[in-house]
Amino acid sequence: MRTRFELADAVKLFAPALVTSGKLNTRQHKTLNNITLCRTALLGGHEEACDSCGSVRYSYNSCGDRHCPKCQAAKQAIWIDELVRKTLPVKHFHIVFTVPHVLNELCLFNNRLFYDSLFQAVWHTLRSFGYSHLGCETGAVAVLHTWGQNLSLHPHIHCIVPAAGYTLDGRWKNIGNDGKFLYPVQQLSAAFKAKLLDSLKRALRKSNQLILFNHLIQKAWLSPWVVHCEPSLANADHVVRYLGQYTHRVAITNQRIISIEDGKVTFIAKDYTDRGVKKLVKLDGEEFIRRFSQHILPIGFVKIRYFGIYNHTVKRSLQLVFSVDEKPVIPKPKETTLQRFERITGQTHCSCPVCKIGRMIRVRTLPRIRSPDMNMNLQHLTQLQLS
Q1: Using CA atoms, how far apart are residues 157 and 84, in angstroms rounded to an integer?
Q2: Which band of pLDDT confidence, cut at 50, 70 and 90, is reported for residue 333?
Q3: Is the pLDDT of residue 356 over 80?
Q4: Which of 45, 81, 248, 283 suits 53 as a labelling partner, its CA being 20 to 30 A distant?
């Protein structure tokens, strides 16, 4: 009896039908194909042997796709380690910008245009409030999420905003001193609504498509918009690690999938209408893959963005220095990606899982299995039974 299920299992079973019916675009097709190949012999790898007990282990290469639940842990740990060293040593506010579901149709029509407009509206709102309320240039690290817990389309952006700004006369200024809120959320919501809808209308008018979606924009204008701002968090390290929970998430992790049987996928989802209680959600297999696929981002799209005083160009032009002291920086020794991951996480990949004493030594490279139809695997997958 199968006790552990993965997203790749669901893709192998249910994606071929969507491919055949033409319901997946090329980008979605390629991403799903990468997920099925991840850490399999098709991508190659290496053979390792313990230098103490002689145990043999085979490690296969990861696909590296940012939508694959197997490939994000190392990237997330390294991103956090990088940002900790570049973040202002002050408290930060966590702000979440969401949009009403009435705009989902427009998002599905052109997700790149929609998400770019969303980022633009978020930062223009925060920047204008920084100057009008505080008289300074502020900053933000913004992360895009597109899903709800049940895999529905729910675009929103998580931001961390430092409780500090840079004034026009070249001074650092503390902001949000009471720590309870940064800006009035009702005013923030109204400004964000106006800026996003205006940005969408301009972009659609430029491409002569406004007539197709103007009725949705009018409905969105009449809908309630929500911007959530949490009280200031602890020190910078804590804030970055907190945001790190959101940065490299995918729409669903393997740990949330409970079962795949009788043509349905059952997974765990938090019900935020019921105090965040975890509940089981059961979807038809094809509907599960369809929902997951709508969260696959356009190729080359940047989902983590740095604004204001956290933007590299702004920091360079204003000659900003984030150091709180003048101690000389001691260069760190060069590390490999594996050494860095082990230092950050405390997990030693090279230790022998059998004897716990020896180290696994690479003894042979396993070549990638190359096929002219490598990227078309999903069209030829059969309906295999999970065993």
Answers
A1: 20
A2: low
A3: yes
A4: 45
Show the 3-state SS of 322-347: CCCCCCCCCCCCCCCHHHHHHHHHCC
The secondary structure element, H or E, covering residue 255 is none
Q: Could you tell me if 106 and 17 lie in one domain? A: no
* Kind plus residue range of the DSSP H or E element containing 212: helix 210-222
How far is the C-alpha of 107 from the C-alpha of 109, rounded, in Å?
A: 5
pLDDT score recorded for residue 334: 66
CA distance 371 to 378: 13
pLDDT of residue 373: 47
DSSP 220: H
The pLDDT tens digits of the residues spanning 274-286 come to 888 999 999 999 9
Residues 208 and 93 in one domain: yes
Rounded Cα distance between 135 and 152, Å, is: 39
d(CA 1, CA 4): 9
Same domain assignment for residues 168 and 243: yes
Report the alpha-carbon distance of residue 146 to residue 268 in Å, rounded. Answer: 18
> What's the predicted TM-score (pTM) here?
0.86
Give the range of the structural domain holding residue 198, as residue numbers without chain letter.
87-251+297-318
Same domain, 186 and 245: yes
Share of the chain above pLDDT 90, in %: 55
Taking the C-alpha atoms of residue 272 and residue 267, their distance in angstroms, rounded to an integer, is 16
Length of the chain: 387
Q: Which helix (H) or strand (E) holds 350?
A: none
Q: Which residues contact 314 (CB under 8 A, 6 or more apart)?
A: 137, 139, 308, 320
- Per-residue pLDDT tens digits for 201-216: 999 999 999 999 999 9
What confidence score (pLDDT) does residue 377 get? 56
